[in-house]
């Protein structure tokens, strides 16, 4: 099957590579020339486990090609995936300019029937806008070519994107057209060998499902963070509570880890956009707003704790920061809690010695060279001579810590653990002031 994917970011590249890997003939289009040049050389512009091998294999087999030519992309695929960014605009709504730009491009170049697939996360009603944008361009050209628009929201997680794409719990397609159903069934058939996980529904329900899913997950995180705040004040260890409630199958263990707030390119913007949609239709989204507020508050927790450890005087202090990406196994720094921490530390006159297994380049791209930020090549280098250590991301490499060793490295025995990785007793036994999240008397 001939498939085109617009956008070679986390979603577009994974979609293109995975579909090419099962034998489809895929062309990926991006407006970013540097990205496409890299991809053509087999260099992957993002960190995503497993993607490099798949891209290299498919490129060498000729099933995956990259271009900046929209005309080439439109001419290629019967199926045209739109997988470009939908960042928040000033009032929190999803900015659809990139999606609409691709739709217009498709309308400008198409010469035969296309199934246009909204894979980007877009608000209810977007498929109609995409439809109108394509129809408008066709009308400008005086053409009447048949096409359909459907919604196929993506549920992959950065860090396990390939696994999620190929073995996800479900694939949702929003359409009322039988023709589109057949095309999408053919597109995803390679993933249906064990059981049919294609769910068809109407377009608006599909668009809404993606937001509802992300809002639900963000709600679980904010709920747990709120519980952790209470646990801290009640001298309760939230980790016992987490295990206690997670064992109930109605609740489950997923997404109930207390921490320093959710980040990334999806939860913050999608909760905001859903709340904006609610307000636009005259409904007050009390729960969504609370989820967002709790998250904002939680993002300042790490700074508050390190500030407290130094009695509010961080001027001239050097803080080691382990983990910069918003979660492990990605280099994505969008809305990462580490950014709130570092920016607050700098504002308070402190310096940062940072280490992350994958996000150093991205951090450098964002903050550039500055005197109060040292980029360290190893976690050990970051703590050497620092005053205190803060853990922002639960990378595997940070899961164990020899507190006696750490004591020799730091000037002060202070650890702020934003992911509850360590046993507070071990830290205390080594004489550390150990601040975790919601761990009762560890405060
Ligand atoms: P991204 O920012 O990593 O990538 C977007 C890409 O689109 C960029 O490479 C950009 O250059 C390209 N682009 C912009 N305009 C273009 C155009 N006119 N033609 C071709 N390419 C163009 O974004 P992402 O993280 O892959 O997210 C894409 C969408 O998928 C968003 O709506 C997002 O909410 C959604 N989503 C993301 C994730 C995730 O984990 N990142 C998961 C599920 C859904």
Automatic annotation (TrEMBL):
* Keyword Oxidoreductase annotated: yes
**Active-site residues, Swiss-Prot/TrEMBL:** 266
- MF annotations from Gene Ontology: NAD binding; UDP-glucose 6-dehydrogenase activity
What chemistry does it catalyse, as a reaction equation? UDP-alpha-D-glucose + 2 NAD(+) + H2O = UDP-alpha-D-glucuronate + 2 NADH + 3 H(+)
Keywords from the named record: NAD, Oxidoreductase
Q: Which Pfam families match?
A: UDPG_MGDP_dh, UDPG_MGDP_dh_C, UDPG_MGDP_dh_N
Q: Which residues form the UDP-glucose/GDP-mannose dehydrogenase C-terminal domain?
A: 320-424
Task: Say which domain of life the source belongs to.
Answer: Bacteria
Q: What class of enzyme is it?
A: oxidoreductase
Binding site residues for substrate: 155-158, 210, 255-259, 263, 327
Gene Ontology terms describing biological process: polysaccharide biosynthetic process; UDP-glucuronate biosynthetic process
Where NAD(+) binds, per the record, is at 30, 35, 86, 121, 158, 269, 334
Q: What is its EC number?
A: 1.1.1.22
- Keyword Chloroplast found: no
Which pathway is it part of?
Nucleotide-sugar biosynthesis; UDP-alpha-D-glucuronate biosynthesis; UDP-alpha-D-glucuronate from UDP-alpha-D-glucose: step 1/1
Protein family according to the UniProt entry? Belongs to the UDP-glucose/GDP-mannose dehydrogenase family.
Designated name of the protein: UDP-glucose 6-dehydrogenase
Instruction: Write down the species.
Output: Ketobacter alkanivorans
